[in-house]
Amino acid sequence: MSVPCVAVERERGEAVRERLADADALDGDHEIAVDGDTIYIPVADPEAVPDDLAATIVERDAAERDRPLTPAAILGYDPSLERLGDIVIVDEDDGERAREIADAVMASDVPCETVLNRASPIEGELRVRRWDVLAGNGTETVHREYGHEFLLDVAEVYFSPRLATERHRVIEQVAPDETVVDMFAGVGPYAVPMAARGAEVVACDLNGRAVEYLRENAERNGVADRVTAIAGDVRELADEHTDTADRLVMNLPHSAGEFLDTAVRLAGDDCVIHYYDIQHEDDPFGPGARAIREAAGDAYDVSVETERVVRSYAPHEYNVCLDVRLSRA
């Protein structure tokens, strides 16, 4: 039977499938197929396919599939779940309900080794949280994103799979031979793919355990020769790397503004800053743009190239990104 399918490179398959699922566009009645280097993902509603994937829709014969047993089918309701590698994450205040969901996940056809429940908000300078292990026995996993693998332990490092699309947007802008400084690098979801595009990346994080994973992830993705991973405060890098960066990643939304003086010191003659911020919906981009201009002073001409709402963060608050170019005056 001929059905509409999104046709993309095989290595992008899982990331695109997740985006289509988030858009409620997936066709669960037909099988995903692989032909050579291309994966064909059936869609139920072509109109719901994200705009940047619309041109990839083709008609193709697809086999009907047996529907897998889902947690929702077992429970009689659709629980809120998040996937990270082979970990499934629930977010339930009711411990009994959380364990009921965990049992259903493990009994379903969802590929899963561990089920976790959030036991605390993100805490402390290292931005980690506590977890209740509901099933399985570990918090370490391998997350796959746009053809790259990231080993991480959710109990020791901060990582959000929900930012995959945003990370990919930024990474796609990187040209070979750029010098990039990832100021708050975590386990490397920006740094590793940027290095894979040919950039030389200096990646820093205050969390020493995250930097250990970053080094491992650079090795497992074949880019260790282009990633310099440094454990510590990025402000301590400024003397050694002054005036070197063609691109800066500042993904520390609550407090990136405190590091703008360091960013200006790191910036080369022509540098793009990807500046992440949390702001009220009334003026989501203005505070960040004003802070960058103030930090740049007379040394640089400042132009805001992109203003992007990444996601809703809290009622009336947005997580936003400003792509800002600094050109030395």
Automatic annotation (TrEMBL):
Alphabetical list of CDD domains matching this protein: AdoMet_MTases
Gene Ontology terms: cellular component: cytoplasm
UniProt-recorded name of the protein: SAM-dependent methyltransferase TRM5/TYW2-type domain-containing protein
Protein keywords: Cytoplasm, Methyltransferase, S-adenosyl-L-methionine, Transferase, tRNA processing
Chain coiled-coil ranges: none
Domain SAM-dependent methyltransferase TRM5/TYW2-type span(s) in chain numbering: 81-328
Organism in which the protein naturally occurs: Halorubrum saccharovorum DSM 1137
Single annotated GO MF: tRNA methyltransferase activity
Domain of life, source organism: Archaea
Matches recorded under Pfam families: TRM5-TYW2_MTfase, Trm5_N, TYW2_N_2
UniProt xrefs under InterPro entries: MeTrfase_TRM5/TYW2, SAM-dependent_MTases_sf, TRM5-TYW2-like_MTfase, TRM5/TYW2-like_N, Trm5a/b_N
Biological processes annotated in GO: tRNA N1-guanine methylation
